[in-house]
Design a protein that fits this description.
seven-stranded mixed sheet; 231 residues; two-stranded antiparallel ribbon; single chain; globular; alpha/beta
Length: 231
């Protein structure tokens, strides 16, 4: 009632690949992140795929009047960063997936800092959750939300019927790491495969070839990112 009517006016949607979203059971959705607006677009897509999306959010949002109760009501998941409470957040994620929920994790952890908005190297949270639960990890790509809010310029545009595209691919084959100890090497290799799957989907939406090397966010030490090195 609050979100969908404005989104239907604000965006002109092209949804593809919905058959790759499991109709039942726990699943981990891993989208690219081009704009602060794209969580609404991704949520709309998943809702139209008959699944209820549960996003991670900064725990401080739950302490904001009106916003906090709304987040609770819609079953979103608070995450504490840099504290012992982060372990509890992971337990909450595991419970959500094992109970059949759809958990949406942005592996990049923030909007991409790649100048042309291609996906960056990811963080390892989605890989860790996949190891703990064995749930399928489904890559999802979105494009067009940056025309509403571009993080590079921080400009919001209120133009109606802005074209947005979302697609999803088959669950990523992570079977070679099934049962593995979640070492840094294992988690980074899994994350590299996740990000490359997302990048390939973004390339399909943009009709372009994604960069061969995943972008390192500023201030991050360089590390091998090719498929061969990550393996």
């Amino acid at each position: 009632m609050l979100v969908l009517p404005p989104l239907r006016l604000w965006t002109k949607r092209t949804w593809t690949g919905m058959a790759n979203i499991p109709r039942t059971g726990g699943v981990i959705i891993v989208p690219n992140h081009v704009s602060h607006f794209d969580p609404l677009v991704v949520a709309h897509y998943l809702y139209n795929a008959d699944r209820w999306p549960r996003f991670l959010g900064k725990a401080s949002l739950w302490r904001v009047p009106v916003v906090g109760p709304l987040l609770n009501k819609t079953l979103q998941i608070p995450v504490e960063r840099g504290s012992v409470e982060a372990v509890k957040s992971l337990d909450t994620l595991v419970d959500a997936v094992t109970q059949g929920g759809v958990v949406v994790i942005y592996p990049e952890g923030t909007t991409t800092k790649q100048p042309d908005l291609w996906p960056m190297r990811g963080k390892t949270g989605a890989a860790r959750l996949a190891l703990l639960t064995g749930a399928p990890v489904v890559p999802l790509a979105n494009w067009g939300a940056q025309q509403v809010f571009d993080p590079r310029t921080s400009k919001l545009k209120l133009r109606l019927r802005t074209p947005v595209q979302v697609t999803s691919g088959p669950a990523i084959d992570l079977s070679e790491w099934a049962g593995a100890t979640p070492s840094r090497q294992v988690l980074e290799a899994m994350t590299d495969k996740i990000m490359r799957s997302i990048s390939a989907l973004v390339g399909e939406l943009r009709h372009e070839q994604p960069p061969a090397t995943l972008f390192d966010r500023p201030g991050t030490a360089a590390a091998p990112t090719s498929g061969e090195d990550a393996g």
